[in-house]
Design a protein that fits this description.
The structure holds two protein chains of two kinds. Chain A is about 35% helix and about 20% strand. Chain A is α+β, with helices and mostly antiparallel strands. Chain A has a single domain, classed as HPr-like (Histidine-containing Protein, Chain: A). In chain B, the strands form three sheets. Chain B has a seven-stranded antiparallel beta sheet with strand order 2-3-11-7-6-5-9, with no helix packed on it. A three-stranded antiparallel beta sheet of chain B has the order 1-13-12, with no helix packed on it. A three-stranded antiparallel beta sheet of chain B has the order 4-10-8, with no helix packed on it. Chain B is globular and about 50 Å long. Classes of the chains: A alpha+beta, B mainly beta.
């Protein structure tokens, strides 16, 4: 299991648009990828709804974990960027 | 004769008064391209947003611009009120229920001052989406539903 922490880069937090982009990217990997904010239930990264349920706002720290290090790198990079651009 | 192994379909209703439209008409590619999920959208004519189905309220956005209900069979239905409304940070919205509540179809979840908000965002069109479409299938939307169910969902 590899894990990495990242700060949410999207100004609106992980809502519809950023969550959909992360979930679509996560669906490309076979290994399970989880997103965790301390004190809240972990979210499966391939579910846009579960990502929205994390309630992550700009600047929150999220831990990305998976058995696939490439998946961790890819999802970490997405969470850290500004995704709310149409 | 009831078959307990038969997969049960569930009916999803419009969460608000207004014309039912295709997601193709939603002026935001993330919804029009079904990136969040497939479903339908409403052009709301009032600001009372209600649960479209019986189930558990699993999400009420902190910014009160979206909520989601998980049906008894497990389908996840997201109601996203308007476009770019996340940027309003909850202003103009009132939440009536909390995540974790069991809700019935028609229960008031979020209300808003539609006219006050309308001028601040690109559109108030409200997508209603099946977000776990990998596990559930969905019927074609009935755009003339007129109070009847708009889509039915069923576990694949």
């Amino acid at each position: 299991m590899t894990s990495k922490t990242v700060t949410v880069g999207s100004s609106v937090g992980l809502h519809a648009r950023p969550a959909a982009q992360i979930a679509q990217a996560a669906a490309d990997y076979d290994e399970e990828i989880t997103l965790t904010i301390p004190g809240r239930p972990p979210a499966a990264a391939d579910s846009s709804l579960m990502i929205m349920m994390l309630g992550a706002t700009h600047g929150d720290t999220i831990t990305v974990a998976s058995d696939d290090p490439a998946a961790v790198e890819a999802i970490t990079a997405l969470i850290g960027s500004e995704l709310d651009v149409a | 004769m009831l078959n307990p192994f038969k997969k049960k379909s569930e009916s999803i209703y419009s969460p608000v008064s207004g014309r039912i439209v295709s997601l193709d008409e939603v002026p935001d590619p993330v919804f029009a391209q079904r990136s969040v999920g497939d479903g339908f959208a409403i052009e709301p004519t009032d600001g009372s947003f209600r649960s479209p189905v019986d189930g558990e309220l699993v999400l009420v956005a902190k910014t009160l611009h979206a909520f989601a209900v998980r049906t008894h069979e497990g389908a996840e239905i997201l109601v996203h009120i308007g476009i770019d409304t996340v940027t309003l940070k909850g202003e103009g919205f009132t939440g009536h229920r909390q995540a974790g509540d069991m809700v019935s179809r028609g229960d008031l979840i979020i209300s808003c001052d539609l006219d006050a908000i309308r001028t601040k965002v690109p559109s108030m069109v409200t997508p209603v989406l099946l977000t776990n479409g990998t596990k559930f299938s969905m019927s074609s939307p009935e755009f003339q539903a007129n109070g009847a169910s708009v889509i039915t969902v069923r576990r694949k």
